[in-house]
Amino acid sequence: MISDEMSDYDRDFDVRSYIKLSYGDPHVSSANFKKELRDFVLENVHEFYAERAPTLRSNSARILEFGGGPIIVYLISAVPYASSIVFSDYSSSCRKAVREWINDGPDAYDWHPYFDYVIKTFENDESAETPLNRAKEMKSKISSIIHCDVAMENPIGKGYEKSFDVISVSFCFESACKSVEDVEETLKKLATLLRPGGWIRINGVLGGSYYTVNDKRFFNVTQTKESVRNALAKAGFASIDVKAHVSDCPAHADYLGMYHASAQLSDRT
Length: 269
Ligand SMILES: C[S@@+](CC[C@H](N)C(=O)[O-])C[C@H]1O[C@@H](n2cnc3c(N)ncnc32)[C@H](O)[C@@H]1O
Description:
This protein is an alpha/beta fold. It has helices at about 10, 15-20, 35-50, 90-100, 110-125, 130-140, 175, 180-190, 225-235; strands at about 60-65, 80-90, 140-145, 165-170, 195-215, 215-220, 235-245, 255-265.
């Protein structure tokens, strides 16, 4: 039975179930994530690195994945542009899962189908080696896996001011923040971690108040295209682009669709 009580990510989040229910085989919909929506997000992530952020050069971007959970798929398109990647999440079990994958541990999840799918579908590269090499490159470029918390004054700890060229956020704000005002405050804090002229890209759900993993219910801040745009503008970002894909959601949640947003900090920050 699904409890009405909202769950905590460090206590209640079952990493394996989350991956299975939301990711699974990239060629088909999974119980919690329709293929059409997953493709919308993955295509926009690809376009962000390939076209939207033209100031990013090969192997030069210092990237922060914020609230990445146990999921590395939104970094596949980023790797050729990255010099280093700091991966962060709130939950220790998520951080452990990513560490396990990097170390090729016995419990590592096999992300190869996603490397293969993203590279074939969005980069039109049919080579069997590219996905294997991309995974190796990602593993070598992830320089640290650290704790993050939107509630902290320094959400990834001290010493990272103006340290990143790109911050990447996937389905985190709706889970971690308590309100749209809280999303705005979080964006202001994350902006301090970007160098002047740096970029942020975010994907998340539109609408919605909860989602479930097995019998656990997780809170969801209700966001709209406008609330995302306003929060980015109030946090000092410009060149804001927000794309939405409306679609009926599976039974596990009550969202209305998904968005992908990107924006740039002023050069004079
Ligand atoms: C829905 S999951 C998204 C995971 C992954 N980024 C993805 O795209 O599938 C929400 C993530 O937010 C993280 N989270 C929860 N509370 C947080 C907080 N206070 N600060 C930062 N992240 C938090 C969770 O640990 C979890 O990994």
